Amino acid sequence: MAKKNEVVKRTPEMLAKAQERMTAIDASIENHLSGINKGYLSIAPLIAEVYDNEYYVVKGYKNIDDYAKAEHEMSHGTVSGLRKVFDRFGSSKDNEDGTKSYTIPEKYTEWGYTKLLLIASDEQKFKDAGIEPFEVFTSDMTIKTMREALALKLEEKAKEQDANAIDTEGKEVDKSTAPEVDKASATATAEARKDDFNGYLAKVKQASADLSAFASNEPKEVVQVIDTILGYIKTLEATYNKVHATATVKDTKKNK
Q: Exposed, middle or buried: residue 166 (CB in 10 Å: 0-12, 13-18, 19+)?
């Protein structure tokens, strides 16, 4: 048997048979995935019912995650995804006996769990791209095709917005006031960059502090690496403040 990273040499006849077999395998995988997806869509209303009514308490669990993991070996991510899909596409109605019925309308079931999860998770991205998933896509499309279409549309929108911004700036800036606008813009940009830098720096410091606390019981080598990182951060902050102060002095002299 050839190793994983070795190129298998095939005759044209062997290649044709391999391609034929791969077509069959892909179809089989998609068929099984379809069954799995439909199964997950059947589970989503049940998880929603357990969560809404806190039925997990009856079995001695503190939350839905503990229940799902212990009873059904379901991870937090899976439970979260099932709830997200139901919240977006499911519905519940009151019954005469005081209980509720939880269902996902049949019109969504043919899409499968993974596609509905993509639409629910990236709902804002679809809005930003101007895509109505159920109008643009079809249920037989692969999730890969849907993701690629979304990414392409978002990229097009970003380029369009950049082009419009440049065009608008060019029209609004008057030549007679261009120097003043440039100075104000440069100052605002510098201040914004400093604010961004300080914000990121604060986050990095906090992350480093958390890491230090986490590694308090680790070997000395780990602690030394963390201390080195903190040292680099302090040096970076001092350098940036020095450069910013120098630039501010120069700008003040120019304005005079």
A: exposed
Query: Measured over all CA atoms, what is the biggest interatomic distance in the chain, rounded to whole angstroms?
Result: 82
Surface-to-core class of residue 90, CB atoms within 10 Å of its CB (0-12 exposed, 13-18 middle, 19+ buried): buried
Q: Are 104 and 44 in contact (CB under 8 A)?
A: yes
Chain segment 209-219, per-residue pLDDT in tens? 665 555 555 55
The pTM is what?
0.53
User: b vs e for 22-55, b when ≥16 Cβ sit within 10 Å of the residue's Cβ?
Assistant: eeeeeeeeeeeeeeebeebbebbbebbbbbeeee
Q: How is the chain split into domains, by residue range?
A: 12-121, 123-172, 175-255
Rg from Cα positions in the chain: 29
* Rounded-to-integer distance, Cα 102 and Cα 113, Å: 16
